[in-house]
Every structure is written in structure tokens, then in C-alpha cells.
Amino acid sequence: MDFPVYKNLIKQLVIGKKLPDAIYVHVSALEHLPEALQTLLLDTIQRLQLQQFDYQIIKFSKRDFKLSLLAYPDFFTEAFPVLHSSCTIDLMKGRYRLTSYLESKNPPILHRKETMLLAEHPDIPRFQALTQACEQAGLFENPRSIGFKQNWLRLIRRKGYQLVDGQLQQLAQLVEAAEPIAQDTAIHRHKTAIRRYALSKPMQTLMQHDYLNGHYSLFDYGCGQGDDIRELAAHDLQVSGFDPVHQPDISKQAADIVNLGFVLNVIEDPQERLACLREAFKLAQRVLVVSAMLGNAKLLAKFQRFGDGVLTQRNTFQKYYSQGELKAYIESSLGLNAIAVAPGIFYVFRDALDEQVFLSKRFQVRREWRQLTQPTKPIQLKQQQNLFDKHRQLYEYLWEVALDLGRCPVSSELEQTELIRQAFGSLRKAFDRVVNFYGVDVFEQAQQARAEDLRVYLALEKFSGRKPYTHLPESLKRDVKAWFGDYKNAQAKATQLLFAVGNVKQIQAACEQAQELGYLQAHKALTLHRSQIGQLPAILRVYIGCATQLYGDVDSADLIKIHIYSGKVSLMVYDDFANKPLPELQERIKIKLREQAIDFFDYVGEYQPQPLYLKSLYIPPDFPNYEKQHKFDEKLLKTGLFDLSAYGPRRDAFYAALALNKYQVRGFQLVKRRK
Q: Which of 288, 369, 401, 673 qualifies as a cystine partner to 284, CB 3.0-4.6 A?
């Protein structure tokens, strides 16, 4: 058999997991392959005397006259089985190469196992359920880095999950209890501890920012009934806690991270409150997490004033803060920066270097790069082809890191430094070979993107008003040198970008440039899904970043609205945004940059939530259910029943008009009822 015949047979395969460069088939489906492929495989194994090689997966290359036998002995017993060894066969030359991964700390793994089996295989429902759980958890959003075990496990933890007995287990969201009514006015501080059945919101932010990865000790100052401690200890984290009522016998301990969670707001004595904050910070060796209840004048009016706070109906003291007030209180008390990570939650770093690393990562966008594992031009030199075949995994790994960094990595930024040096002689030689192999153009795009990330970060540092840092982390020094030459030039570029944010004409031009990412309301605002923020021009990323400086991360919002003229950013939260054609508005947060204030509006209870019409205008084509949503929106417009040019009709009027005209919504379908 020659390569053209082989290539045609591969193209016609209807079974297996199909990727751009190969098709993966489980051995149980071998007899369902075309007879010519079966013969080729079995004859090759016999001719090369590979009958003793125990393999479970066959990889048919699409671009080369090659196939591979892959040993995944735990295919059916492990959720994401590890590759033990591989045998790559060059069918043209009649040669093979064996590679063992038994000693590897970061071996390749398998996902979506059901795609490699025949449709009637009994294990497919089990594998499909796991794949669906991974998709819902967002684990497949960036597929280029999940093919190795350690990368995969880190991603699972970063997304807030743990792999337990082959199943994804989530640390669920905070459950808060409502306060019952009582009549006396004595302060009962012991009643302020809320029983939780999952992680509190401050702990969730630590998980989101990868601080609950097992590398940091944690002390919960004011741990209440200890629910967070039990949950984290169950995941083998080094954690302890103190509470004057529920855990009084536990001594206060220093730790990398100290959580002062919703403690300040229940202390009625201002001096005791201040002493508590400062003592908690003394215990924090790396970062202090401070959280408190937020409230406004409307909320305070419901309670009886007491000192600088209020008495609740449960006879507990509460000191409600605004976001800006809490930030100012922490900073004036500790003399350090308070970084907003969510409403009512701030991080205070002991070391300015740790603070800079955190902030710079916060504004770094995770991007998808094309041609990740394939060269951009035909490989002309036999020596270069042979080197790639021999070290494919190292090529792909180093290329992935280089694209993430946008520059040549140093040894401390790599997990496989020694292997790379053994294969190529030095990191620089390896880097040059890899960039030349995959394409300089793609790498230059990565350089430009990461340089823009750094410019956005530095611009936001200037906006924050914090004192300039006297020392930079080593990683930031390397970034600055690679893209700007020196720190002075980087600061000048950042200043130029920050000044541009104050220019309405430039904001409007940037919104017009980015209108394909969302919906542009002429001369008013650009609204888009939060997943598109990283695709925005740098000036708009800084505009939104200025809002996050005050509010915290915007991950909980579905839509982001950039107001062109008023200096505002609005965040909208909808009910089940991804899975409904007409999601209803639950919460709106308006961040006023000029006033440095935040307004919260909720649309539950007595309010009638407003549906979002024409959702397809706000979401990217790769968003879940995009095609269904687009068809739904087109059909809704064709009815001619509504004016959807602005916000559209109220919910009750909309559904009444549909019913009157015998229409109803079924999932993502708008159907006309029969008489």
C-alpha cells in the first residue's frame, strides 16, 4: 500500500476520534476498520515483530505515512488514562521508534474516550457523562494545554473541582442563611456565625486564583463553625482556624494566607475592630483576605442605628460598608494596597513582588493559537524532520510555553528543562528551532499580544494611584526587557494608553472597531459577553480594567456594557444565560468610574425581570447553542410582533402577545400552535 491509498482510506473512516492531524481508534473497533487497513496494521506488526507490544489505541496519521500503537492499559478503569508507552511506525521506511513514559512526571493523557469506541459499546454512556461534566466545568475551553497529566490536574483545581474516584467533584457555592427576627437589643455576637455547607465566597476567590493548590498554608481567623476548614482539610490542604465562640481553644497561628472573612462587620467597638484587622495581618506571611458585608442607605434605613453600624433584627451588630469605604479603611489601617477581587472582598499582600505577580496575571489573556502542533511550511530538511519525530512531545511543550510567555522561556519557567537540554543542547537552541519549525509569524502574534497585556497592566497600575514599585518580579523584568527594552519605555507606553482612555473619541472609535464582538448601540455603548474581553482593543481592556480596580473580577457577570460618554461600565447577570433563548435579568451593577462608586440593582422578588432579546447579537459564534439562538432570533424578528430596537417589551407584554398570536417558546424554538 502506498501513501495516497492509505490517505484515502483514512479520509473515509467513520469511526474513531478525529483530530486535525490523526484519527484514534480503540482496538475493540479494529475489525470494523476497512479490510485493507486491518491487513496493513497486522502485517506491519508481524513484519516488525511487535506482537508483544501491548497497545489499546491505534493512531492513524493523516499527514504522514505513519501509524502509532499507544499503550493505555488503564483505558477502562481510569477517567483520564495515562500513556505508558508508544510505538511510532514509519510505514514508508519500515522502521519504528519506542518511547516510554513510565518515568515521566507529566505524561500524555486521554480525553473523550467514548469517541474512540464503537457506538454500541456499553461503556459509552459512562464516558459521555464524564465528558459532559468536563464541558460544563469549562475544562475544554483551551484544549491546547490539557493533553498532559499535570497541566490537566492544575486546570481541574483552578476551575474549582477535584477528581475523586474518576468523577469531577465541585466545591459548591456559598449558601447563606437569612436572619430571623428577634426583639431585644442586646448584642449577640455569637449568633453571627452562619452555618455553611460549602466554601464561603472569600475561599472561592482563593480557589479561583489558584491559592488552594496545596502550596500554601491557610489560617481562618474567625472561622465560625469551621465549615470552610473541614471542606479544605478534606482535600488535604494545610488549614486551621480560630473563633472566639466556636473554636476558642485553637491558638492563633501564622500562615501563608490568612482569611478574615466577614469578621470586621460584626465587631461593634471600632478600636477592637482595628486591632483585629492588624492582628490578622501580622499572622499573614503572604496575603491577607479581608471581607465584609456591603450595604447602602436603603439597606441601613431598615435597621436601628448603633454606634457606627446597626442592630439587626437578630440582635447582632453589623457594620455595612460601601466598596470604596472598605478599601479605604483597610488601606488606611494597614498602610498597604487593598486589591478588590469581588464585591466586599480584598487581598492585601505583604510583599510587593507577590502583589505584582498577582496583578499582572490578572490581566493576562489566555489565547487560542492556530497551528499549535503543526509546522507552517513543509519540512525540507530530513534532519529537521527526524528531530521533530524524535522529540515531538518536547517540541509541542516548548512551543506552548513560548506562546504563553511571548518570549524565550528561562529554565525556571519550564518543567522539562533537562530533557530539552539533552535533546537540543541549550534552551536557546531549542527555542530557535521550535519557532523556526512552527512559524515566526505565529510567535510574533504571541509577542504582540503579551506586550499588550503588559501595557494594559502597567496602565491600570497608574490608574490605581498606588506608589510605583521599586522592584519588579524576575518574570516581569524579563517581559519588560523582551518587549519594551527598559522599564522607562514601558511606563511611557502605559501612560500613553491610560491617557487615551479619557478621550471619548478614541473610546468611540475602539467600540466601533470592536463591534463584531458584541452589539454596538450607536454613539451610546458596546455590550458583549465577558468571554470576549480579551479580544477587545487595549484601550477598552483598560476601560473595563479601571472598573475591576474598584469592583473586583467580573467573572460572575454575563454581559459587560461599555458606556462611551458617561464613564461607566455596567455588569449584567442573567438567569441561566447560556441555556435559555430569552434569559432574564437578575442583577445589574453600574460602576461609575468618575465618581468611583458602584450601584447595585437586583430584579428578583417584587420586580418583573426583563428578558434579553436577540441574544445572538451579544455572543460569539462558538458560544454554546449559538446556531439555535441565531435561528430563534431570526424567527422572532420575522413574526413582526415586536419592536426590539431598544430594550424590547416587558416580560408580561411579550408573552401575552405571543399567546394572542398563537406562538410559544419551547427550548430554543419559537413554534406556532395548531388550532
A: 288
In the chain, the number of structural domains is: 4
User: Which CB contacts under 8 angstroms, 24+ apart, belong to 648-655?
Assistant: 648/610, 648/611, 648/613, 650/608, 650/610, 651/584, 651/608, 651/609, 651/610, 651/611, 652/608, 654/611
What is the rounded CA–CA span in Å between residue 609 and residue 586? 7
Domain membership of residue 648 (yes or no) is: yes
Neighbours of 454 (CB within 10 A): 22
- Please give the DSSP secondary-structure letter assigned to residue 375: -
What are 59's three cell numbers?
Answer: 493512531
Pick from 483, 462, 443, 452: which is nearest to 365 by CA?
Answer: 452
Distance CA 451, CA 286 (A): 28
Sequential DSSP letters for 250-302 = SPP--EEEEEEES-GGG---HHHHHHHHHHHHHHEEEEEEEE--B--HHHHTT
Q: In which order are the strands placed within the sheet that holds 317-318?
A: 304-306, 309-311, 317-318
Q: Which long-range contacts (CB under 8 A, 24 or more apart) does 358-361 make?
A: 358/209, 359/457, 359/460, 359/461, 360/453, 360/454, 360/457, 360/473, 360/475, 360/476
Contact 585, 496 (CB under 8 A): no
Residue 550 — left, alpha, or beta (φ > 0 → left; ψ -120 to 50 → alpha)?
Answer: alpha
Which residue has 490581566 as its cell numbers? 363
Residue 459 lies in a domain: no
* 247: β partners: 243
Residue 632 structural domain? 505-671
**DSSP letter string over 542-594?**
HHHHHHHHHH---TT-SEEEEETTT-EEEEEEETTGGG-SS-BEEEEEEEETT
Same domain flag for 406 and 308 = no
Examine the domain organization and report whether 587 and 621 are in the same domain.
Answer: yes
Same domain, 65 and 204: no
> All 3 cell numbers of residue 378?
513543509
CA distance 373 to 635: 41
The C-alpha atoms of residue 451 and residue 273 are separated, in whole angstroms, by 43
Grid cell locating 236: 488535604
8 A C-beta contact, residue 509 and residue 520: no
Mean pLDDT for back-to-back runs of 10 residues, the chain (675 residues): 89 89 91 90 91 91 91 89 92 89 82 92 89 85 73 75 66 33 45 52 90 93 86 88 82 94 91 95 97 80 82 80 91 93 94 90 68 47 67 86 91 86 89 88 90 92 79 89 91 93 93 95 91 94 91 89 93 90 91 86 70 95 93 95 89 91 92 78
Residue 183 placed within a domain = no
d(CA 468, CA 447): 25
Residues 6+ apart with CB under 8 A from 93: none
- Output the pLDDT for position 184: 45
Chain centroid to Cα 189, Å, comes to 38
Q: Do 319 and 401 fall into the same domain?
A: no
CA angle 508, 514, 518 (to 5 degrees): 110
What is the spatial distance between Cα 546 and Cα 593, in angstroms, rounded to a whole number? 7
Q: Is the dihedral of CA 294, 298, 301, 305 positive or negative?
A: positive
Give the per-residue pLDDT at 370: 44
Cα separation, 346 vs 342, whole angstroms: 7
